[in-house]
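Exam review. A common question shows you a sequence with its structure tokens and asks you to describe the fold in words. Practice with the pair below. Do the first one on your own.
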Amino acid sequence: MTPEVQHYLLAGFLLLAAVFAVPLLKRILRPVKKRISDRIPALVGHLLRCFLRPAAWLVRVTLAGWALLTIPWSAEIRVVLTRAMPYYQAFVLAMAAWGVWEAIPVIWQMLHRHPHPDQPENYETLSRFFENGCRTVVVVMSVLVGLDGLGVPVTSLIAGAGVVGLAITLAAQSTLSGLIAGITLVAEHPFSLGDYIVLGDVEGTVEDISLRSTRIRTPDQVLITVENSKVCAEYIQNANARTQRLWAFTIGLEYRTSARQVEQFIRDLTKLLVSDPEVDGQSVQAVLEEFADSSINVNVRMMVNTPGYGDYRALKGRINLAVMHLMAEEGLSFAFPSRSVYVEKNAH
């Protein structure tokens, strides 16, 4: 067998290995993987799995490239293959960056294994902010190192980018202020993911906090994106940060209602509200407030233990129905605006 044939056979073997080596290794190492997974921490196992796909592609490309180099090409083709080595190095860097990209959430969990149990939303907000920031750094550094490996004068580009960056900075002051405001929001965390906030004319549930903007889902399911600089400039009302919510309402009774009926109604209404498990019984105040033009007004003020917007609306609906049933049981009616007209007859 001639040396040339041996080279072709070796190249064919390497190409087959590039295609079938990874699936074969997965099947062979599956029992070993089960044994090792029982002996190492779960987070370490997750971290290793983040690099499996990049490593598999690296093995495939490496074997395929080795096969190409094994074939006895002409001198011109071998020169071309040799010049392709920097691109292979850039590919290795890209695979490493891919693995780090996938591993960033796991690294965050390893750094914060015991988040504060009373603030899970803050932990999720910081986690997403950490992931976005670290992934941005990974992409920028990988691109710079890759360009440098390909012979691009990165130092000159960075020096030239200083002048260009100054111009961009002047033209993108709002974007930079948004970035700084985003860091401020994460550091002070006036709200977290899942909180219901009121921000100027916008209110809804916070769905995402990025470096530049905050996304809010309104009650009618519209997704609004607000720049972080505008978020910091507004008064922020966080409904989830309060433990209770004030509810005040007025019930108008007809003027034909007697004083005894009003007193009995106030007693029964107070008893009804105090007995509700989601109402702070000590805060319930039901009083005869005023005699309005068309009604006897009973004013109610109380604190409810449902700070969430959805739970608050459900509580209002349930108690309003209970008040209607109570008035029906006591033979009372709601007053509505009315006017009495008297017709005077002239005597002839």
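Now try the second one, then compare your answer with the model answer below.
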Amino acid sequence: MDQPIQLIAPDGRATPESRYRRDLPPETLVWLYENLVITRDLDAEFVNLQRQGELALYASCRGQEAAQIGAAACLRKTDWLFPQFRELGVFLVRRIAPAHVAAVWRGAWHGGLDFTSKCCAPIAIPIATHTLHAVGAAMAAQRLGEDSLTVAFLGDGATSEGDSHEAMNLAAVEKAPCVFYVQNNQWAISVPASRQYAAPTIAHRAVGYGMPGIRVDGNDILACYAVMAKAAERARAGDGPTLIEAVTYRMEPHTTSDDATRYRGAAELAEWSARDPISRYRTYLRDIGVLTQRVDTRVRARSVRLRAELRDAVVGAPDADVGELFDHVYAEITPELSAQRAQLRAELAWEA
């Protein structure tokens, strides 16, 4: 359990690991690469848009692309995903338009369009609350006799919240078809992983709940794909939940409002930069003859198009009506909220 499952070494060479498959069809290997590249490029575009005042905030996923895409890519489209706020790679695998993701960071009342139609729950900003939602949805599928599962995407910091413990315990007791996918990116804002748990690893906690715990190299997309596929197979067979710890790294600050230089150094960043998930996978694909210049050109062209579409949708878009903050709290607005709405609008009108 201590050593993460790894199919591709940081230098791009295949490892001796034989318990998990890496022999995916060439078209699947290329599709994974395409999602890696586009996720990183769009992630950079989101950061740029926030810096230009088009988004209120943004949480970058740079460095975690393989962990996200590998986990989501092996699932069925009918499997429900319960994300936190950093899962851009997951959203792109589910074909959620980048502009709909941007709406979340612009403060739209709906929290992002098109999520639920793609079997993806709305983004959970409160830490770990969605783990309980994932278990509840899994139990519902279980009782309805559906051949589906749920995945709760969470971080190392979220595993310190009480909701996570309740969710994992209940899932194990009920043998719910749920996978807890922890992206251990080493930092919970400014709190290091070493201060999050006393156990050897997060995966070790699984034994206390009565479920398997697996560690995987979160910068190895094929390993993430294989480990999630096996956990999904186990859930569908009625054998209950699995706790996966994907060991990765958050290369950017916690969000665009964070200054990470206050709590981590350049040497740590350089160490993890050498384990970059995209460069290692690119080397692997070239070595096995799958990645060609033609493929790379096509991927880059699609990335440019999607970034342009995102900018076109966001730049100059009208700001959300502040009244929406009050309109969608209850089915019928309360007198107190109505008064607060009127007061805020009066203050804004006076400032204008």
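Model answer, second protein: The two ends are 60 Å apart (CA to CA). The CA atoms of residues 189 and 254 lie 5 Å apart. Full marks require stating both points clearly.
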